[in-house]
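User: structure tokens for this one?
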Amino acid sequence: MYMQELGITLLRNKSLISRVAAGLLLLGVAAAQSTPAPQGTSSTPTSQGGSSAAAAQPAQAPQGAPANQPPAGQSNAAPPSQAPDQTAPQAPAGTDNGVFVFRAEAREVTLHATVVDDRNHLVSNLDKTDFTVFENDKPQKITHFHQEDFPVAIGIVIDNSGSMREKRDAVNKAALNLVRASNPDDQVFVVNFNDEYYLDQEFTSDIKKLQAALEHVEARGGTALYDAIVASADYLTHSKLQRKALFVVTDGEDDASQETLEQAVHKLQQENGPVVYSIGLLGEEKSRRAKRALELISERTGGISFFPPTLDQVDEISRTIAHDIRNQYTITYAPSTPKTVAGYRTIHVDAHAKPYKKLIVRTRTGYYPGQEQQGAGGNN
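Assistant:
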């Protein structure tokens, strides 16, 4: 199902995976009937730079799932070892085995918000009282508020299709500089994609490992952008870090995904899902649909999309994104509507403070209740 090459887990043919997964499911059911499952185990390491013995495991969630996704509107079931209730962070709780974590409290939603003024300059000196959160147009009570540079789990998701061959050197440099400009305790992984997606480096903070993964270039094939983003968002749930982001770079329109744009956006809008920052190297000849797709994905998740006219600007943009992530506000609130009430919840956040004439808050535009996927360890 998977093959190992220099410690890198590569995805094989998706149809083969579906057939193998079906067989494994039948074997698992038979085994479960004869042998009790161990309690409290997890198949995915959550520490930075996992051991080589565990290297094959993290890819199972992001790579196997998109080949056999549930219908739109449904979420993947959480593994038995994860807590069944839906939770959100209460407050930072120092470290857990060297990893910064947030402790969870039931029935809360967490937003990561970036604030800019009317000149598009970052504003990072606001207080809790300067914000008002609305869910379905109703004001909500803010329970916790932080503005600190806590570590983030980041997925670097890079287009590896044939048209990217001449662009990868500049893109790889920009991706590494994003990591260098970020919190040194961030957890970062690398996914390269063409018509399939490859987990070329699991969570690590080692620049050399990340560089080696980014240089694993086999520019060929089509562009399975949506599949790669959904798989990467799923892999993020295996980090104990509560703040999560994706850095996506592509130069074309999706032409190979099993996921549709609508399905991908739906799955990204799980409770407390990742913020997506995207760079489209589209050029004038590329379809407007490609630009709109990146804009929609970033906007709905609270990120931002960039469309530089030249490749030279990508490095500066990556540093801007790192600065944006490090200056976010973390806002937690308890929804006034019970989670048992189904349906999409819209979110809007206002900010007002002197001496600013106008403040713009960028955060996710909504979520589907009860669809949060917790990472291994249950500490998200």
